[in-house]
# Entry
Amino acid sequence: MCLLAFFPMSLSQRAYCGRFAPSPTGPLHFGSLVCALASFLDARAHNGTWLIRIEDIDPPRDVPGADQAILKTLARLGMTSDIPVVRQSQRYALYEEALRRLSQQGLVYGCACSRKEIAAVQTELGLPSHVYPRHLPQRNARQTGSVASHPNLQRSCRFHRSSLRLFSENLERDVGDFVIKRADGLWAYQLAVVVDDAEQGITDVVRGEDLLDNTPRQIFLQRKLGYPTPQYLHIALALDGHGQKLSKQTHAPAIDNEDPLELLNAAAIHLGLGSLNAKTPQAFYAAAQEYWAEKYLY
# Structure
């Protein structure tokens, strides 16, 4: 077994840098606000840098003007990037170089199989529908998407932060190979986020627990590309009345025209910080940062 273990370094060894990385597929909703606030408070509690990155690598899903609307809403709520905002659409050369380095290690192959063909192989091998099989008939066809392959079996990844439970995933069994560049030429999230976090010096990632099972794949790529691994904190999701994650896919309403203090207080309550009853945004952030430090700093 090859074990990729992640445990936190001491704060004295690190210059904290966190980020919030929304996709411009619509306006900011409450679920995104919770993640933004959590990452912002974590950075401020560590006296660190907080930046915003627009993850716009999926143009068919992007909504014109959504990036500016998100940035304006965050600014109105008192959260602005400490450095100029970066957009993934301007960083394709970095992803291409990372793909080249992975290819040199024999970790990438092309695949032209349809979803139907993939499903047939999954059924034949008895694999779950979410596990991408390595044994595909057209895997080396030209003009295809690129898939990251981890040829050593039983590769596991373990990580945790603060009081959260230890999470472990066997990539071979639970994930299989995974796409890093799509057949339509667009870059996949897994590769882009790893390259960006490394290039921007991100030391701490605070995000929703819906991305928890993405983290082992990203740590795997970090190890293969020689990148440092950030610390990860995954927070509870904001859900709608039906128990579904608040998202653009579930038509979560925008928060553009609501009272800033009311929104911030609601987000703080969701994060377990309690009702702060602040009269100004400045007073809110002072209190919220103190409560965050008590709850989440290690």
Summary: The first strand starts at residue 2 and ends at 5. Confidence is low (pLDDT under 50) at residues 1-12, 150-157. The CA atoms of residues 110 and 142 lie 7 Å apart. The first helix runs from residue 30 to 45.
